[in-house]
Write a structure and sequence with these properties.
It is built from four helices and no strands. The protein is an all-alpha fold and about 100 residues long. Keywords: Glycoprotein, Signal. InterPro entries: AB_hydrolase_fold (IPR029058), CarbesteraseB (IPR002018). This is Putative secreted protein. It holds the Pfam family COesterase.
Length: about 100
């Protein structure tokens, strides 16, 4: 599984962090998060969409824990869309990811 994490870091994480650092130099507010589903999983683009769209709430195969986590993610995104307030730290190049 380490090779998946390596590939994710090389092709996704490093470029995203590079662009976040560049954007943070010219924009006053930049926030980001890294989603990894489990300790051996390498998060990639779009992995969080199922949670944001309530996928575990619609699936009979999802666990209660997955459903509860989906609700938490949904509430966070809805709160941001409604209020424009992000409840995690602003991006800093020296402390890049929540």
């Amino acid at each position: 599984m380490q090779w998946r994490r390596l590939l994710a870091d090389v092709f996704f994480v490093c470029p995203v962090l590079f662009w976040a650092e560049e954007l943070s130099r010219v924009r006053s507010r930049l926030h980001m998060f890294r989603f990894s589903d489990g300790p051996d999983q390498a998060g990639t683009f779009g992995d969080d969409l199922s949670l944001v769209l309530g996928g575990p709430l619609l699936s009979k195969l999802a666990s209660r824990r997955e459903g509860d986590f989906s609700i938490r993610v949904l509430r966070t995104w809805v709160s941001f869309a409604r209020d424009g307030v992000v409840k995690w730290p602003q991006f800093k190049a020296w402390a890049p990811v929540v």
